[in-house]
Specification:
single chain, extended, Nucleotidyltransferase, domain 5, 7 strands, five-stranded mixed β-sheet
């Protein structure tokens, strides 16, 4: 009945490959026109055709028997290197934790030269390290009782590789610049909208997550485009944990993290960090002792940066705010064009309302 037909359809759709269908068509052609004709029509040898036919008949004429089989060798070649070389690689990795394969290569080459042994290349050294379980050593965390604690790595959401901001507020990035002034530590928290390049910054004495939370609330107020943020991109710093993370969860915002020691994942904001330091912070760092005075002067620079200073992302023709205005006008124009299309519609064109005088 219907169930059997469904099972047959499922079997044909998912278990029989296109290659098997092609093979069965060749076998049907052989049966119909003979061996000489099939050898002329298709680029396969006589032995191959007989092998297909044998498999097909032995499986009670099931088409799935003609599916391509796994051609991986059952017995694979194994790397055979002397015990001395393996021990030397282990010794080098223990003495110099996480030393790379290219750095091990010249040291191992010297060792093998002294022992008159054949030495592996750097790629093979990498494979041997992998075979030995990675030989990676992580620094141990010790509690205040003097006992070794297990490091629990918290799983976080990483920014997808193909992600790209498509409209204002789609993705905004935050980071922190740390400066020392006369032995005092000061922090400048920075912000940038990845689509419009609108940027903001604020100096603080605190590196806590509460300061980052307050800064984010300030960014939401000063962002000139009438939209809500969707995704937030930060590094794995402690200032973007606890209170900051709780606030994002409260607002149902997606929090992306960059990979550790990978600043290029937040390249746009890292470039802004360099710009603001080269153009403002380096010349006004003495004001950081009193963050209020520093921020008062910083606001003037940020107004210039966002409204007058042209940005390379816009071919040095527009500032971030000018780009926002052009983007908004483009949206209005698209909406206007859509309304015109609606007005020009000929639906009910011959119909006229009754005019009552």
């Amino acid at each position: 009945g219907f169930v059997k037909l469904y099972e047959y359809g499922l079997k044909w759709r998912y278990m029989i490959t296109e290659k098997a269908k092609y093979k069965i068509r060749i076998l049907i052609f052989w049966e119909k026109h003979g061996l000489a004709a099939v050898l002329d029509a298709f680029p396969y040898k006589r032995s191959t055709l007989f092998l297909w036919k044998k498999k097909f008949n032995e499986s009670n004429r099931k088409i799935e028997s003609l599916n391509e089989q796994n051609k991986t060798p059952k017995t694979k070649r194994k790397r055979l290197w002397t015990f001395e070389i393996i021990k030397e690689i282990q010794r080098l990795r223990e003495e110099h934790p996480n030393l790379g394969k290219d750095k091990i290569y010249p040291l191992l080459k010297m060792f093998c030269g002294e022992k008159a042994l054949k030495y592996p290349c750097s790629k093979t050294i990498g494979r041997l390290i992998k075979d030995l379980g990675g030989l990676r050593i992580f620094p141990q965390k010790i509690s205040h009782f003097g006992k070794i604690k297990k490091v629990n790595r918290q799983k976080v959401l990483r920014k997808p590789k193909d992600f790209k901001a498509e409209y204002p507020g789609h993705c905004v990035a935050l980071d922190t610049i740390e400066r020392f002034v006369h032995g005092c530590r000061r922090y400048i928290i920075t912000f940038e909208d990845l689509y419009t390049r609108f940027s903001f910054a604020w100096a603080t004495k605190s590196h806590a997550s509460l300061a980052a939370k307050e800064f984010f609330a300030l960014c939401q107020k000063v962002f000139p485009f009438p939209c809500e943020f969707q995704c937030i991109l930060t590094d794995n710093g402690s200032e973007f944990k606890k209170h900051f993370s709780q606030e994002l969860n409260k607002q149902y915002l997606t929090h992306y993290h960059t990979y550790p020691k990978t600043p290029k994942m937040n390249a746009h904001l890292e470039r802004f960090n360099r710009t603001i330091q080269e153009e403002f912070v380096d010349y006004n760092s003495f004001l950081l002792l009193n963050p209020e005075n520093f921020n008062r002067k910083l606001v003037d620079y940020l107004i210039f940066y966002n409204t007058e200073r042209v940005h390379f992302a816009f071919q040095n023709k527009l500032s971030p705010v000018q780009f926002m205005i052009s983007f908004k006008q483009e949206q209005i124009q698209q909406k206007f064009n859509f309304n015109n299309l609606v007005l020009k519609s000929k639906t009910w064109w011959p119909h006229t309302l009754v005019c009552l005088i």
